[in-house]
Design brief:
Chain lengths: 119, 108
C-alpha cells in the first residue's frame, strides 16, 4: 500500500523557515517523480514544486521560487521542502504528492501537514 | 501563465447527471486530470489523461476534452459524490502544474 506521510509543519513567524519532510513507502520511491502541492484554508489546490527521480529536473511555482527548495533522498525514501522567508500567505496545508508514471497527474497524496505563518 | 476556469458550484439531484467544466485555451492539446476532495481529506484522482479512470473509481465517472473545455461527467449522482472537484494540467510552456479553482458539487 502506497503511503506518504508529511511532517514538519507548525507555527512560524513571518520571515522564518521550516523544513517539511515526506516519508514514502509501499512503492519504489526512486522510480517516481514527486510534487509538493498546498491548499490555503478554504481555498483551492496550488501546485508548488516538482522534482524528477534523480533530482536533475526541478520546477517551482512563481509564488515560491527563490524562497522554497525541493529535494529528495532516494536512499531514505524521503521528499523535502525547505521553506524560507515565509509570509502570511504561505499559511496552508502542504501535501506531498506522487506523480503518475508517464504523466503529470498525481495518483497518491499524503494527508498533509499544516503550516501557519503568523506573528 | 496558463489558466483553468471552473464554475464555483454545481448542484444536482440524486440519480441525475452532473457535468463539471474546466476551461482553458486550447485545452484539447493538454492532458487533463480530475480530482475529488472531500472535507478534511486529501484529494483523490478520479480521471487522468482526459478520460481514463484509475482502478477503484466507479464507471459513473467519465471525462472528455474538446476545444477549450474539458468536462467531468458523473452519472447517477449519489450523496457520497458531494465534494470539491479540481481539474489539473501540466503547462509545458512554463513547466508549471496548474489547477483549476475547484467546483463544489452539491447533491440536493
Amino acid at each position: 500500500e502506497v503511503q506518504l506521510v508529511e511532517s514538519g509543519g507548525g507555527l512560524v513567524q513571518p520571515g522564518g523557515s521550516l523544513r517539511l519532510s515526506c516519508a514514502a513507502s509501499g512503492f519504489t520511491f526512486s522510480a517516481y517523480n514527486m510534487n509538493w502541492v498546498r491548499q490555503a484554508p478554504g481555498k483551492g489546490l496550488e501546485w508548488l514544486s516538482y522534482i524528477s527521480t534523480s533530482s536533475t529536473t526541478i520546477y517551482y511555482a512563481d509564488s515560491v521560487k527563490g524562497r522554497f527548495t525541493i529535494s529528495r533522498d532516494n536512499a531514505k525514501n524521503s521528499l523535502y521542502l525547505q521553506m524560507n522567508s515565509l509570509r502570511d500567505e504561505d499559511t496552508a496545508v502542504y501535501f506531498c504528492a506522487k506523480v503518475c508514471s508517464g504523466s503529470h497527474c498525481v495518483d497518491y497524496w499524503g494527508q498533509g501537514t499544516l503550516v501557519t505563518v503568523s506573528s | 501563465s496558463y489558466v483553468l476556469t471552473q464554475p464555483p458550484s454545481v448542484s444536482v439531484a440524486p440519480g441525475e447527471t452532473a457535468r463539471i467544466t474546466c476551461g482553458g485555451n486550447n485545452i484539447v492539446n493538454k492532458a487533463v486530470h480530475w480530482y475529488q476532495q472531500k472535507p478534511g481529506q486529501a484529494p483523490v484522482l478520479v480521471i487522468y489523461y482526459d478520460s481514463d479512470r484509475p482502478s477503484g473509481i466507479p464507471e459513473r465517472f467519465s471525462g472528455s476534452n474538446s476545444g477549450n473545455t474539458a468536462t467531468l461527467t458523473i452519472n447517477r449522482v449519489e450523496a457520497g459524490d458531494e465534494a470539491d472537484y479540481y481539474c489539473q494540467v501540466w503547462d509545458s510552456s512554463s513547466d508549471h502544474g496548474v489547477f483549476g479553482g475547484g467546483t463544489q458539487l452539491t447533491v440536493l
